[in-house]
Amino acid sequence: MKITFDEHYPIGKGCHGVIEIIVKDRKGIVLDRWIEPNIVKIFGKEMLSHRIPSTEVWDPQANSGAGGWVANNIDPNNEFSARYILFGASFDATNIPVDNDPRYYQQDEATGTYVPKRLGPGAEYSGELINAIPIAEPYRPLKKVETIGFNPTYQPSGLPLLQDDVRAINNIVLLETTLRLDEYNGFGTTGNDYFVITEVALAGGRKIETVGSCELTPRRLFLEGPINCEANGSDMISIPVSESQVDLVKQGDQIMIVGPSGSSGDTLQQVSPYYLVLSKAVGGRDIQLDRTPVDSNNHPIVGPIMVFRDTLRIFSMRILSVPFRKSCNFEITCRWSLIYS
Length: 341
Hints:
Layout: E1 15-24, E2 30-40, H1 45-51, E3 56-59, E4 68-71, E5 82-89, E6 105-107, E7 114-116, E8 147-154, E9 168-179, E10 195-204, H2 218-221, E11 223-232, E12 236-238, E13 254-258, E14 274-279, E15 286-289, E16 302-310, E17 313-326, E18 331-340
Antiparallel strand pairs: 1-2, 1-18, 3-4, 5-10, 6-7, 8-9, 9-18, 10-17, 11-12, 11-16, 12-15, 13-14, 13-16, 14-15
């Protein structure tokens, strides 16, 4: 299948490519295939260009079929690498699938069809997927990148403003994972259950082997900690002497502040519990945040708190123009192609 990359994105302003969805039946016959444009914003380009391939990929057949990370012979290996492809779906409060979900789609007045909504410029959904599917292995596992590859692009020869030769440059990276027949088939256990998958995200984060039936969304799953801290009503929080994990949080991290119980659900009535660490010296106990922690009434938070380090880094997220249903009758491969200008 020939993939044509949209050329209207300015060279050097970001990396772009496509998301490809391949649907197969129980016999492995391809029933459908479609692609959608994809953009990774410029802020992540340098990070991605150096770190996107992890040194390991997930092999579902390793460890006697239990799955495991195996060497991919690509360096470097750290949490800034793209390891995961995350999925969100449209379902209501009773876990019933919803078509034309208003969180994702709006009706076009001219054609009467439903089209993806444009996301606003603000920090909607706290950086999370709109409606992430809770992780519960083995049927709703955290989907790891299972295959990494590279493809070349070619510069055409001739004029105008082109060289006379043709150069092949391996600047397209392919990241792929597969939703198998027994995975992501809704919240129930019958053959009639399904998910309407409406969004896909490419993400990095700390290496996780298996998570079990934790029923956590990806954002909560990638929280690291907590550690004890003290809030004093300003943009500076402190790590007490009694806390041994003094360097868990580093400058540039995103953290989540919760109550002294340490529960990730105890958000102290904050509008958003997530903060950016502007300054944190190695071995130091003072953490400067991008703003003062306050509750929903704008009252500064004072006293003991707990801090989680957020290791989930979503490089790109897209609402699918064509949502697809995942049931036990279909195997669906998601292939993420990124081209570097």
